[in-house]
Amino acid sequence: MRLTRMACVVLAGGALLAPAACSSDEPAAAPPQAATESQTPAPEPTPPPSHPFTGAATEKRNPVLAVKIENTAAGKPQMGLKSADIVYVTQVEGGLTRLIAIFSSRYPAKVGPVRSARISDLYILSMFGKPALSYSGVQTKMIPFMQRASLFDVSDSAAPGAYQREPGRVAPYNLVASPRKLLAKAPDATEAKDIGFVFGDAPEGGTERKTFTVRYPAARFTFGWSERRKQWLIWQDGKRNMAAEGGQLGAPTIVIQYVKTTRSQFHDVNGSYTPLLHTVGKGRAVVLRDGKAYQARWSRPNQRSGTTFTTPDGEPMPFAKGQVWVVLAAPKPVAP
Q1: How far apart are CA 274 and CA 81, in angstroms?
Q2: Are 313 and 249 in contact (CB under 8 A)?
Q3: What span, in angstroms and rounded, lies between the C-alpha atoms of 251 and 289?
Q4: Ramachandran angles phi, psi of 27, nearest 5°
Q5: What 3-state class would DSSP assign to 51?
């Protein structure tokens, strides 16, 4: 028979009962501390993966669009560069330079001035898989190379509806394109993937630098660190490199990648040779980030692989998160 609380009190006077002989109808509450200790903390949310071109946290992997952009005074200010993930600076005929802007994270309303393609572009772009390439014209001798290249042709002749002439500018420096219309003509363009870039905190070492200058035979770039903007602001030929959208162009990371530069089989209408930039192989680099210059090495085994950057000790060289400019320069300026 079950004993009530009162019965236990009475029986306790006549006999010594075992502690378990009498119990309350209500179970005893667990000590508050024990209950707290038994709770399992909620798991930390898993952060989204980082974008392979910028290191930004995002799960999006949009198609890759590359655009050839004029880079002389006649074509400035350029449109859309602020939205690019990566900007390549390449040498062309006469010792001048042009840009290859790589878009995937976001697409501007318009980009330009769009100019012609070069043989070195095909070697650079192959690491992105099969991207869409926006350009205006190519040498006749290069047409077979373009047809065999790993890219979707969205030039002004292949996708004329994506281009327009910008009022107030003079041809050929007034051709601009709509990235979304370009990509509509290349629905199968490769989505952003790993191309060898690593992002993270700056490594130990580095040399404090306020400015860093790269010279081409007929162009000069100076990168100046802005502590306020946390970017390397860009000057070209002694003038601030301004964006059509407003403000000076700049990026958290500038990579000066020294590459062998030779004469290709192509020439322009004036007889100046087209440089061939050897972006497959190994070489020296300087990485500018956080107000410092870091010595580095680059390696790219083949055309399909990405380009990795390492410290002199062989460790991955991390970039600061955000836009990256890759300045492809000869170890010594090559005469035009």
Answers
A1: 24
A2: no
A3: 9
A4: -65, 145
A5: coil
Q: Which of 133, 131, 103, 129 is nearest to 115 (CA)?
A: 133
Residue 208 is encoded by which pair of tokens? 């404090």
- In Å, how far from its chain's centre is CA 270? 35
What residues are paired with 310 via a beta bridge? 297, 316
Q: Decide if 308 contacts 285 (C-beta within 8 A).
A: no
What's the rounded Cα separation, in Å, for the pair 318 and 168? Answer: 42
Residue 88: its H or E element: strand 86-91
Give the Å distances, CA to CA, from 216 to 29, 91, 95, 164, 332. 80, 7, 6, 31, 9
Mean pLDDT by 10 residues, the chain (336 residues): 37 37 43 50 71 93 97 97 98 96 97 97 98 95 96 98 97 97 98 97 95 97 98 97 97 98 88 93 98 98 97 96 97 61
Listed residue (177, 170, 139) closest to 156, CA to CA: 177
Domain parsing of the chain, residue ranges: 49-336
Residue 217 — left, alpha, or beta (φ > 0 → left; ψ -120 to 50 → alpha)?
Answer: alpha
- Count the residues in the chain: 336
* CA pair distance 266, 268, nearest whole angstrom: 7
* Strand, helix or coil for residue 102: strand
Structure tokens, 240: 């601030």
Q: What is the pLDDT of residue 9?
A: 34
Global pTM reads 0.85
**How many angstroms separate the CA atoms of 89 and 140, rounded?**
24
The single-letter DSSP state of residue 44 is: P
Tokens 């440089």 found at: 275
Give dist(CA 231, CA 223) in Å, integer. 9
How far is the C-alpha of 2 from the C-alpha of 127, rounded, in Å?
81
Arch. (CATH architecture) of 49-336: 3-Layer(bba) Sandwich (3.50)
